[in-house]
Amino acid sequence: MTSSSKPGRRPLVPVVSMALIALVVAACDEEGDADGAQDRFRSEVGPVPETPQRPGDAQAGYRALVNEPYVSCGMPYSAYRRLTPETDPADLLPGREGRNAELPYHLTAHTNADGVEVVSSNCLLCHAAHFDGELVVGLGNEFLDFTTDPRALVNQLGAYVRGEGDTAAWQHWADRVEGIAPYVQTSTVGANPATNLTWALMAHRDPATLAWSSEPLLEPPPREPLPVSVPPWWRMQKKHAMFYTTIGRGDHGRFMLLAAMLCADTVEEAEAADSYAADIRAFIASLEPPEYPFPIDAALAEEGRQVFEATCSSCHGTYGEAPSYPNLVVALDVVGTDPAYATAATDGSRDRFYEWAARSPYGDDVRLAPAEGYIAPPLDGVWATAPYLHNGSVPDIRSLLDSRLRPTFWRHEQPRDYDATILGWRYERLEHGKDQAADREERARIYDTTRPGYGNGGHLFGDGLTDAERDAVIEYLKTL
Ligand code: HEC
Ligand code: HEC
Q: What residues contact residue 291 under an 8 Å CB cut-off, 6+ apart?
């Protein structure tokens, strides 16, 4: 990727006029009728317009990301250490301060109002992963296991809690987990419940004050989350809206910090996290993908570039010296991939959460407005981000580009091992789905594409290529 796609070089005039248009549109919406509410929460398929972003300092953003307690409740540190006496050195990150320097990358420590030191999961739980021996910040972790009840960990840790202060801190955290536990358990290892988690948190909070209610104030989301694969952060350098359905319109920094909602019980707490949100956004938008660590056949990749530009660039853009990216949402009937995630976002069944956001302190700057389709993502570093599609249903790029090869039932091999011939983690093809699994553990590891939301159809744009052309495109994708 060249520096011309870096943020901060955007032409100023169009950005300013876009802001004015946004203001005018927002003003019209205020007086809208019932239909206006529907429009407010929907976007058209097609190109996504750019929204100006608050400027931020990327370096300060990294500091905040790995040190600030934006998730402010958690397990008492002393109990955590009794349960887990040592940190694996491969999980340490540079630039961490105080206690954080000795914690694994996905945990952050802070001292709460009662003087108790607590540790909580941070963004890197889902947004950092190991590849080829390196811990890559921004790479989605596609191997997390959300198939068990999170209350089990809470109770396990409870046995190590000592003293009044620690018990109160543990109880605060346990209460939060109790509220969200029914909505964050997926049926398959790797499937991520973050979206359902967000809806569940909104259901338990008063939008005006952010006060927590143990009883839901809105009808909660369905219990079983639709499966989602974690996108790599470096895409945000090019994307005009966040998330697969481009539901995240407006101020990206504010959206990113919605994750803080697990624990922030007051508007002041949310504002404290928002004070560094623009810096975190700037850091995320400055990330470059890792470089492909294995050999590349340059001549074959050059052939692949030509095929790619003829077959794929209209949706995914061009790369290299003068990159372009169309920011295109592709309608469900054109892309043909599993429709459940985009349909649930646009059929009205989530509008109460979009309304919640509009009424909350976040609402001045963010708008939840999904389109009925999926964005064709930038393909920078795509070789590192298997499995593919928004639901992670296709394990490798070779079968993404030849739908006849896609397995109906599959599971990742253990320990995980990267296969450069298919651009994905080695997997086993299975003869049966979850229904015939031997036990709970095997059931959780099987990716069963016959289940609702888990479908692996669509995106047939590589099927028409010859084998030689497909090999060339795969070689080219290694260079992005
Ligand atoms: C529990 C896992 C999890 C945690 C924790 C989490 N995220 Fe995410 N994040 C996701 C998933 C899943 C998506 C994709 C959702 C979608 O696109 O609909 C996502 C999407 C994003 C995106 C948009 C990427 C794109 O291409 O549109 C950004 C940026 C992001 N997260 C930032 C953050 C930040 C910053 C934090 C911490 C404050 C955070 N996330 C915490 C799981 C998580
Ligand atoms: C008509 C638009 C369109 C064309 C043409 C197209 N794609 Fe896509 N592509 C998409 C969309 C939309 C998605 C996301 C679908 C989803 O997540 O369900 C996608 C997803 C992908 C992904 C998966 C990204 C990820 O991380 O999950 C890869 C890889 C990809 N496309 C490669 C290609 C290649 C190579 C070609 C040319 C042979 C191509 N695409 C042609 C629209 C297109």
A: none
